[in-house]
Design brief:
With 275 residues, the protein is α/β, with parallel strands linked by helices. It is built from eleven helices and nine strands. The chain has an eight-stranded mixed β-barrel with strand order 1-2-4-5-6-7-8-9, surrounded by five helices. The structure holds ligand C2E and calcium ion (3 copies). This is cyclic-guanylate-specific phosphodiesterase.
Length: 275
């Protein structure tokens, strides 16, 4: 056993070290990226289903690395969440998105809501509401033009403190949306207690419409439930006309997805959707 242990040790060490080194290197690059302003926001439109009107957009972060070009958040958000870098990065995202929203407003573009993703780490800050208020104040974006996207795991099972934070954010006048709805641990009882404005149906339930009957049933149920609770409901990942038709028939208020537009830089967004 001793012999085997030693072999195992020798066998795995170089590999583990390589992975750890890679992580450390990436972590260092991410810190530098934030200092060097290498992150950019792309904006993806959200449309009201029955009128077809543009109602807002979701800000999605990308890393414009000088070495590798545009890097998707799937590749770096998890590490920034582990290391805590997501807190300053998330604040940068919020400030940039609010600044952009205000710029569009000043240019006389139609009213749109800017949705920003919050991470669990940001949500653990006791002074989050104060920080959000300060950014709204600094950028001049009216609070009701900001929508904060939270996930179920961030709010379920965390007790009174979370309810207080949600109410504090709500009191600012911003909207609250539950992202990836249906994929996490959700309690319908909680939904009634939380000052939530919107449920966002996860793209996993949209992708296989109209082939997958279970997904259609789930999407229809979420829409019906949201409507009964007087919440707005938006579907994400809408790629086809058939998906849009189904969601519209079910009474889904809004849609977001490649069918309408991919996430794109702010200037392209303005050229494409503000006319
Ligand atoms: P998410 O919040 O669920 O964002 C939706 C993702 O689906 C985006 O990927 C978007 O580009 C993609 N998407 C939109 N429409 C379609 C479609 O029709 N079909 C398909 N297949 N995909 C579509 P993205 O931009 O790569 O972001 C991935 C995730 O990274 C986000 O998922 C979010 O969890 C996280 N993320 C992005 N930006 C931020 C941020 O600023 N802060 C935090 N905390 N997380 C972020
Ligand atoms: Ca989101
Ligand atoms: Ca989502
Ligand atoms: Ca997602």
């Amino acid at each position: 056993a001793k012999e085997q242990g030693r072999n195992t040790y020798r066998f795995y060490t170089p590999k583990l070290t390589a992975a750890a080194n890679e992580r450390l290197a990436l972590e260092a690059r991410l810190h530098r990226a934030l200092a060097n302003d290498e992150f950019v926001l792309h904006y993806q439109p959200q449309f009201e289903t029955d009128s077809g009107a543009l109602i807002g957009c979701e800000a999605l972060v990308r890393w414009h690395s000088p070495e590798e070009g545009m890097i998707s958040p799937a590749r770096f958000i998890p590490l920034t969440e582990e290391t805590g870098l997501i807190v300053p990065l998330g604040e940068w995202v919020l400030r940039s998105a609010c600044t952009q929203g205000r710029r569009w407003m000043d240019a006389g573009h139609p009213e749109v809501t800017i949705a920003v993703n919050l991470s669990g780490r940001q949500f653990q800050q006791h002074d989050l509401a104060r920080r959000v208020a300060a950014i709204l104040d600094e950028t001049g974006l009216p609070a009701d033009r900001l929508k904060l996207e939270l996930t179920e795991s961030m709010i379920m099972g965390h007790g009174e403190q979370v309810v207080e934070l949600l109410h504090a954010l709500k009191t600012l006048g911003s909207r609250l949306s539950i992202d990836d709805f249906g994929t996490g641990y959700s309690s319908l009882a909680y939904l009634k207690r939380f000052p939530i404005d919107e449920l966002k149906i996860d793209q996993g339930f949209v992708r296989d419409i109209p082939q997958d009957e279970n997904d259609m049933e789930i999407a229809a149920t979420i829409i019906a439930m949201a409507r009964n609770l007087n919440l707005k409901v938006i579907a994400e990942g809408v790629e086809t006309r058939a998906q849009l038709d189904f969601l519209t028939r079910q009474g889904c208020h809004a849609c977001q997805g490649y069918l309408f537009g991919r996430p794109m830089p702010a200037d392209e967004f303005a050229r494409t959707f503000f006319r």
